[in-house]
């Protein structure tokens, strides 16, 4: 799989760092389950992992809106209406992940 760096935004390294932290936290939750920790403690930690992932997703989508969609809708862009239409289609596509 090739990596296209044209979609790399300033917040992506920060998002990747958050997700790596959540990944480590999730590994800890799995260990808690395997060790027989109380369900309340496990649920609390899973909630924290969910929030971390949701925050990363929200930041990623906001970053996409700020950098990709605004650029396609900017009136000074070449291509005019086609870029604006594509920007609207991109926005519709990404909103299903909100």
From TrEMBL:
Pfam families on file: Trns_repr_metal (PF02583)
InterPro entries found in the cross-reference section: Metal_Tscrpt_repr, Metal_Tscrpt_repr_sf
Gene3D superfamilies for this protein: Metal-sensitive repressor, helix protomer
CDD domains per record: NreA-like_DUF156 (cd10154)
Entry's Gene Ontology molecular function annotations: DNA binding; metal ion binding
Xref: PANTHER family: TRANSCRIPTIONAL REPRESSOR FRMR-RELATED (PTHR33677)
Assigned protein family: Belongs to the FrmR/RcnR family.
Name recorded for this polypeptide: DNA-binding transcriptional regulator, FrmR family
Organism: Cohaesibacter gelatinilyticus
